[in-house]
Each structure stands twice: as structure tokens, then as C-alpha cells.
């Protein structure tokens, strides 16, 4: 038999029918999760055509993008647009019989945290959802990818999508991570290496000692942000860490079903002689903590480095890109990164707001206060993460250090609720996108690990977290 990559195994096992000579197939989708922001038109489409949802149990509705995260919240939104979206979401849950995690539900959170928390993400599954960071599920040996609104409608009506296979890339992450270097630093370094479009058209399988050694949270961080390199899918072959992690999920199969599933899951790896369309190796041993200085996730450097030297940049296009980024970011060329003063610190998002992320950031903050000029907040990835952090005493560490302790949601990752920065604000952020205006019009975002955000909050400047270890 022809050797296959893990990606090919997943796609082949979900292919219902080959549709044409261009490589389009009809793909079976196991599950989806929907948010209030990208789903409304899909439901409207279904209503107009008098269609039902084919498999309501394969879907989950969860409010995250527009809801407030203030510590005491109720079921109401703070702005009329958000209220409309959430009202319609509730109506869709009722009319189409799909389970909803509403704002005040104990299971609510950011969709890509909630979904696996519930045990809905299992190895070998194909998961499509109206959000680009659906790639997160690759950490479980599932295939997750983002889709547009009309595709959501097609998926809800038929449980299938028309799909064209991607090219495959193997990213071998070798070596061992140094002190203070995290999964976030690895993926930022990876994106900086191959560029924000370097994996366009590819599904990436991450392999190597670094992946093996990471915990599930770290693996999710990498798969989550793979989309910032342009990848429309990311994978890691499942191992014992995955099985331990999912075992207790409410919706995880139990008993004989679990044993049966395990037999299937153990086949989920790329055959040793499988051929990838591209191979790339990143030796992670020499990595240090990373930060972005610009307006694209690949505009990143090591913390003890400087902003790019414009004078030394000969390529015209590169010159213009750097100039534009420096200008928006209010930075000079060739500036030491650690001389950059911040006004805000944000720990949150589906990249870095799981319990392990909060634990690690709290370790840095313990016994410290944040700088007087910094405003800082933590928005836990889910209400469950929030409660666990409270039980473990982590919330208290954040609060004593001067962070605001918030409710869960996307919040300042994309500033669609009331958590918005003002023009000129500069934020050390554990999020995934530093695009122009992402955290508010004219606001400036530096991406980094949650530990690095904690260190920056204490110092008031971008800082090497290893000083606090
Ligand atoms: C709102 C949604 C379309 C978007 C995405 O797909 O990623 C958002 O979650 C983001 O992170 O920018
Ligand atoms: S936390 Fe950020 S990246 Fe994740 S789904 Fe929400 S807006 Fe998108």
C-alpha cells in the first residue's frame, strides 16, 4: 500500500466521493463549533431555504467574540450590535435544536478552549468551524480548519463540505527548549523563519523532540498559531499525553467505546516512508524568548535583539514593509527591544489562556507588582479555566500583582467587545495577531508568551522573562 501522511489518512477516511478531476472531494465533517459572530448568515440561509440542521448533536454554539468580560456579568451585552447577534444565536439554538453555551453558562469560554474541554475534539476527527484558529485541534491528532459563512451553511445542512486537498509540509522541531522558552516562542520563531505566507496552501505536521516534550497546552499553542504562517491545517500525531488529556471530557467515549477508539487512534501517524511536499527543520535549542515588533506575526525577533536596521535593508519591498510597520508601531529602526515601554499587558486568547498558561504566568508574577504605568488584565480561556485558577490560588496572584481578573471571552484579542485599547496604547499581549488596529484603532500590539507578558507588566518595558526566573 502507498505510504500515507497523517493528513492523507484523515482526509481519505473522510472522503465520501471524488467530485471532479481538479481534486475536489466531498468531505465528511465530524463536528463543528459556532460563534455568534460568524454564524448568523449561515442560519439565515438555512431559514430562507427551509432547511434543517442535519446533525444538531455534531454542533455546539458558544458565545465568545462580542461578550463583555467584566468581572460581574449577566446575560446582557453592552452594545446593541452584540446584543442582536447574541439574541439571534439564542433563537438559532432553540429553533435548530443545537446546544448553546451562553454567556453565563459555566461551560462558556473561547470556542477553541471550550470544544476540547468538553471532550468534543477527538483524534482522527475532521472538524471545520467558522474561525481560522480551528487549526488548534491538530494538537489532538484531529484535522481542524476554518471555513467561511456559506460553507458553514453547507456544513450544517449536510454535514459535508466540498474540499480540495492541501499540500503537506513536515516541520521538524528539533532540540530542547532552553530555560524560559515556550511553545509560543517556538511558533513565533517558526513563523518568522518561513514568513506569514510561508505555509500558504499547506497542512503542516509538526514533529520532533520539541513536540514530544510539550504538554497539551503548548501543542495547542503551536497548532493554533500555525494559521499565522498561512497554513490551513496543522497536526501532531496523537500520543499518551493526548489520551490522558481527553479521557475525562464529558463527551469523550467511555468503556468499550474508548477501547475501540484507542485501536483506531493508534493508527494515526504518518507512515515512515510517507512523502511530504515540503520539509523544514527548526532547531529550537538556541531559541530565546521572542516578541513581535511589527504589524504581522512574522515581524518578530529574540527579546535581546533590536528592531530591524532600515539602513542595512537593501531590498525595496522589505524596506517599505519595515518602514510601514515601524511607523505604525511608533518605533525607530535599530532600537533595543528591551527599551520599548508598554502601557498595557493582556493575557488571554485561544492561543495562550489555558490553565497551564495562567499557571506559568503566575509563577513569574508571584511576589511582584506590575509597574505603576501599566494597566493589565487576564481573560481566562474559559469559565472552567477561570474557576480552576481560582481554586488553585492563581487568580489571587494575578490580582495581588495588579492584574484585573476577568470573565472569559475573546476580549482584547480582537477588541470586538468593550475591551478596546486607545490609539497610541502599547500592549504586551499573549494573543496571536498584531495586525493594524487589532486591539483598537491606532493601538500597538507586541505578541509574546504569557510569561513574557507577565515580565513586561512588572518592568513596564518589554523584558527578558529569564530575569524573573
Ligand atoms: C472573527 C473570526 C472570523 C476571526 C477568525 O476567523 O480568526 C477571529 O476569531 C480572529 O481571530 O480574527
Ligand atoms: S481568542 Fe482571538 S484568535 Fe481566538 S477565536 Fe477569539 S478572536 Fe479569534
Description of the structure:
The termini are far apart. This protein has 15 helices and 19 strands. The protein folds into 3 domains: 6-166 and 238-266, Aconitase, domain 3, CATH 3.30.499.10; 168-237 and 271-283, Aconitase, Domain 2 (3-Layer(aba) Sandwich); 292-467, Aconitase, domain 3, CATH 3.30.499. By secondary structure, it is of the alpha/beta class. Helix content is 32%, strand content 17%. Helix 2 (40-48) crosses helix 5 (149-158), helix 6 runs parallel beside helix 8 (216-225) and helix 12 packs parallel to helix 15 (450-459). It binds 3-isopropylmalic acid and iron/sulfur cluster.
Keywords:
4-stranded parallel sheet, 469 residues, 5-stranded parallel sheet, leucine biosynthesis, 3 domains, binds iron/sulfur cluster, 19 strands, globular, Aconitase, domain 3, binds 3-isopropylmalic acid, alpha/beta, 4 iron, 4 sulfur cluster binding, Aconitase, Domain 2
CATH superfamily of the largest domain: Aconitase, domain 3
Give the total of beta strands.
19
Question: What is the number of independent domains?
Answer: 3
Distance between the termini: 51 Å
- CATH class division of the largest domain: Alpha Beta
Secondary structural class: alpha/beta
Which bin fits the share of residues in helices? 25-40%
Q: Average pLDDT, to the nearest integer? A: 97
The CATH topology of the largest domain is given as Aconitase, domain 3
The unique ligands bound to this protein are: 3-isopropylmalic acid, iron/sulfur cluster
User: Globular, elongated, flat, extended or rod-shaped: what is the shape?
Assistant: globular
Widest β-sheet, arrangement of strands: 17-16-15-18-19
Annotation field: number of helices: 15
Amino acid at each position: 500500500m502507498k505510504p500515507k501522511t497523517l493528513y492523507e489518512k484523515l482526509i481519505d477516511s473522510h472522503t465520501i466521493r471524488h467530485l471532479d478531476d481538479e481534486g475536489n472531494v466531498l468531505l465528511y465533517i465530524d463536528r463543528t463549533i459556532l460563534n455568534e459572530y460568524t454564524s448568523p448568515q449561515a442560519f439565515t440561509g438555512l431559514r430562507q431555504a427551509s432547511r434543517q440542521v442535519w446533525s444538531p448533536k455534531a454542533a455546539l454554539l458558544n458565545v465568545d467574540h462580542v461578550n463583555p468580560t467584566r468581572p460581574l456579568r449577566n446575560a446582557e451585552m453592552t452594545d446593541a450590535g452584540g446584543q442582536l447577534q447574541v439574541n439571534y444565536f439564542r433563537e438559532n439554538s432553540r429553533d435548530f435544536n443545537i446546544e448553546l453555551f451562553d454567556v453565563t453558562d459555566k461551560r462558556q469560554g473561547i470556542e477553541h478552549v471550550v470544544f476540547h474541554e468538553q471532550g468534543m475534539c477527538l483524534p482522527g476527527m475532521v472538524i471545520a468551524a467558522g474561525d481560522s484558529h480551528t487549526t488548534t485541534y491538530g494538537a489532538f491528532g484531529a484535522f481542524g480548519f476554518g471555513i467561511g459563512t456559506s460553507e458553514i451553511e453547507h456544513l450544517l445542512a449536510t454535514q459535508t463540505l466540498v474540499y480540495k486537498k492541501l499540500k503537506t509540509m513536515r516541520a521538524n522541531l528539533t532540540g530542547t527548549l532552553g530555560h524560559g522558552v515556550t511553545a509560543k516562542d517556538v511558533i513565533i520563531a517558526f513563523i518568522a523563519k518561513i514568513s506569514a505566507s510561508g505555509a500558504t496552501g499547506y497542512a503542516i505536521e509538526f514533529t520532533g523532540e520539541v513536540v514530544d516534550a510539550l504538554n497539551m497546552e503548548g501543542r495547542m499553542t503551536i497548532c493554533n498559531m500555525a494559521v499565522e504562517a498561512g497554513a490551513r491545517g496543522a497536526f501532531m500525531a496523537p500520543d499518551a499525553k493526548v489520551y490522558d488529556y481527553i479521557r475525562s471530557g464529558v463527551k469523550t467515549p467511555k468503556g468499550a467505546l474508548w477501547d475501540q477508539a484507542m485501536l483506531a487512534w493508534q493508527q494515526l501517524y504518518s507512515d515512515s516512508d510517507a512523502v511530504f511536499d515540503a520539509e523544514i527543520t527548526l532547531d529550537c535549542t538556541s531559541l530565546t524568548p521572542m516578541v513581535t515588533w511589527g504589524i504581522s506575526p512574522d515581524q518578530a525577533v529574540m527579546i535581546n535583539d533590536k528592531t530591524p536596521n532600515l539602513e542595512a535593508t537593501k531590498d525595496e519591498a522589505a524596506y517599505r514593509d519595515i518602514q510601514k510597520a515601524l511607523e505604525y508601531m511608533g518605533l525607530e529602526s535599530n532600537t533595543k527591544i528591551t527599551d520599548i515601554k508598554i502601557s498595557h499587558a493582556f493575557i488571554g486568547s485561544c492561543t495562550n489562556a489555558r490553565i497551564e498558561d495562567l499557571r506559568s504566568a503566575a509563577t513569574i508574577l508571584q511576589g511582584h507588582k506590575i509597574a505603576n504605568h501599566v494597566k493589565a488584565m487576564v481573560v481566562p480561556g474559559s469559565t472552567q479555566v477561570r474557576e480552576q485558577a481560582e481554586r488553585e490560588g492563581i487568580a489571587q496572584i494575578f490580582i495581588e500583582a495588579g492584574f484585573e481578573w476577568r470573565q472569559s471571552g475573546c476580549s482584547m484579542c480582537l477588541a470586538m467587545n468593550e475591551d478596546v485599547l486607545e490609539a497610541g496604547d502599547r500592549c504586551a499581549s499573549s494573543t496571536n495577531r498584531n495586525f493594524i488596529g487589532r486591539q483598537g484603532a491606532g493601538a500597538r500590539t507586541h505578541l509574546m508568551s504569557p510569561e513574557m507578558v507577565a515580565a513586561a507588566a512588572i518592568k513596564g518595558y518589554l523584558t527578558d522573562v529569564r530575569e524573573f526566573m
